[in-house]
Structures are given as structure tokens and as C-alpha cells.
Amino acid sequence: MSINFNDVPSEFVRLKMEELFGKPVASDGKTNLFDELFEIDQRDMKALANAAGQPVSVEMNSVGDIKTMDDGTQWRLTPNGWHKLPV
Asked: In principle, which of 27, 40, 56, 86 could form an S-S bond with 32, CB 3.0–4.6 Å?
């Protein structure tokens, strides 16, 4: 699963996201990767988006999906979770 913002959110929003979903496996601020799937409550996501003042998207990723972070590092979802690809 990944949670994505258009712009890097505030520290308050990051802490709220961690309260709901735990610490991400990897994050560049805008893109946050989680190994576990969580039950998503629409009210929680609305509160997160309102606190961030921007849209928040949630992706249910499939094994084999690759996400690229702002620094160019790439992460692939495997059956055992997200793994950083060699540069």
C-alpha cells in the first residue's frame, strides 16, 4: 500500500498518518510505502486530507509494482513487502 500527497505535508500531518498506519517502510515525504494493508476509514482519510490542505491518494499496490521516490530510488513490492532496487 502507498499513501501519496501532491506536496510534502507538515510534520503534524506526517505524525497523524503514522498514528493511523504506523511508520512507512520508505518515504520521501510525498510518497509513503507501507508493507501492510490497512482498513481505510473514509473519515480518517478526510481528516488527513483536510489537515494536509491537499488531496491524499491511497494505492493498493500489487506484487511487482515499482514506486520511484523523489531522489530517484526505486522500490518494488514483493510478496514479502517493499524492497529497494539497486541503483
From this structure: 27
Decide: 69 and 31 in contact? Cβ < 8 Å: yes
Residue 30 in contact with residue 7, Cβ under 8 Å?
Answer: yes
**Residues 5-21: pLDDT tens digits?**
999 999 999 999 999 99
Cβ partners under 8 Å of residue 31, min gap 6? 2, 4, 67, 69, 70
Average of per-residue pLDDT values in the chain:
95
3-class SS of residue 5? strand
Beta bridge partners of 33: 2, 26
DSSP designation for 57: E
The amino acid occupying position 38 is F
The domains of the chain are located at 2-84
- Identity at 74, one-letter amino acid code: Q
**DSSP helix/strand/coil, 63:** coil
